[in-house]
Amino acid sequence: MSKPMVLSIPLFSLGFRPFFLAATGYAVFAMSVWFGVFAFGLQAGFAGLQATIWHAHEMVYGYTLAVIAGFLLTAVSNWTGLQTLRGTPLLLLLLLWLTARAAFYVPNLGIAWSAPADTLFCLYLVIAVTVPIVRKRQWQQIGIIAKLALIGTGNLVFYLGVLGYLEHGVRWGLYTGFYLVIGLILAMSRRLIPFFIERGLDEPVALRNSGRVDIAALVLFLVFFVAEVFSDNRALAAALAGALFALHAYRLAGWYTPGIWRRPLLWSLYLAYLFITAGFLLFAAGLWLDSLRLPALHAFAVGGIGVMTLSMMTRVSLGHTGRSIHEPPRLMPWFLLLLLVAALVRVLLPPLLPEFYNRWIELSQLLWIIAFAGFVALYTPILTRASRP
Q1: Which residue has the higher pLDDT, 238 or 4?
Q2: Is the domain 5-384 a CATH 3.30.470.20 member?
């Protein structure tokens, strides 16, 4: 008996392929729409949402959650040795995500379609990555699954707020998803960045790590998250952010070795983590300078989430298609560099030269679009063709 047609398509053989391609394509599309709104006053319905609310939601629950889906479906398969979604089930998960995204732009669909599609997508994803872990009893991965489930819960809370069932649901939902994504990145980076550095360089390196710092960083981040999202105690949140800056700066210093500058997929990961660390410092300083609040959020978002996810997709796509992770396409390091410049422009220049505020935002948006369009152009052949033997 022949295989179903979807199973025979390389694109649907493993989760990273369709979701990395869909996520980066959507990063280009959604930021282009946002550029049109910001630069030219484009009028778009966004299912009745304010443009800024739509932008925040789609960057967290549209782009970033698609990247997480592709990464975890692939990683869980590696961790457990069990096949995660492929073929038609993987296509169904992708269609739920696409339906939720498209509904924001199609008249007469809106929240009535996006809310159930997004909720089903999150539920399906959690089940898909949890079942193999439970079957193999890899309980050490439960923390990551719990974060994923909470991100999905944050999305549901957002929709309950939009629909009027939860007074603070929109804010709680957006910031819950945003900070849990940061928490997930920090947790995964603690495992992966030292591992990649130690095995990615030609010379032996001894990186410094501390169990006490790991525990303190986790506990403080959880308290920071609760204080920032669910309380009005700005002083407490700022103090916790300052402590988190110190802890993560200490961790980064222990991971530093000059050899990373020879490997684009090491320096990009390292600098993305540095942006998150700087975000905590800017957040703490925001207690005294309100003008630093938005730069802090964009240090997390563009420099942290954006650069980290683009770099990780670049690496994972190479490794899981039989290509050398040390030899990305020749132009890809330049696109990573452009995204780093986009983050620097968005974070540093508005508070330093506020008279050109709109121009800095537009420049950052354009650099983001070029960087992700570059990934799409370079990696579509890699993600849609069979792996190398």
Answers
A1: 238
A2: no
